[in-house]
From TrEMBL:
Pfam families: Glyoxalase (PF00903). Keywords: Dioxygenase, Lyase, Oxidoreductase. Residues 4-115 form the VOC domain. One of its GO terms (molecular function) is dioxygenase activity. This is Catechol 2,3-dioxygenase-like lactoylglutathione lyase family enzyme. InterPro entries: Glyas_Bleomycin-R_OHBP_Dase, Glyas_Fos-R_dOase_dom, VOC_core.
Length: 130
């Protein structure tokens, strides 16, 4: 079996507020079914990301979402200029990715990153994989 991730849905308390946040990040809104649901398409036009309204006790703050960008430092500066606040500005990590971190309105951890070839081919990669 060959699986490919093409859709991710997270639970949020306020779909409309989350739409505004994710549009600031640059995602393209393709479905808006308020107050319950919204769906975006990511830059490569192959992956979709959606929001589903959850009750107050259902929204999870343990979700970590990674968005890859080819020009991390420039994109982070653009987002700072749009008023978004980052917990960590672009930093080179020991796993050879450059990452910046912020939270969405529901506290989901977002990591904007650039990994280049190291995303799929780090020096410690298992050689039998792929």
């Amino acid at each position: 079996m060959k699986l490919d991730l093409n859709q991710l849905t997270i639970q949020v308390r306020d779909v409309e507020a989350s739409i505004a946040f994710y549009q600031k990040l640059g995602l393209i809104l393709i479905v808006k079914s308020l107050p319950e649901y919204a769906r975006f398409v990511c830059h490569g036009r192959q992956t979709t990301f959606s929001l589903h309204r959850a009750g107050p006790s259902e929204a999870s703050k343990s979700t970590w979402i990674y968005f890859e960008t080819q020009d991390l430092d420039h994109d982070v500066q653009r987002l700072l200029d749009r008023g978004l606040e980052f917990e960590e500005l672009p930093t080179d990590q020991p796993w050879l990715w450059r990452e910046a971190r912020l939270k969405d309105p529901d506290g989901h951890q977002l990591i904007l990153y650039f990994a280049g070839n190291n995303r799929l081919h780090p020096p410690w990669r298992i050689h039998e994989a792929l």
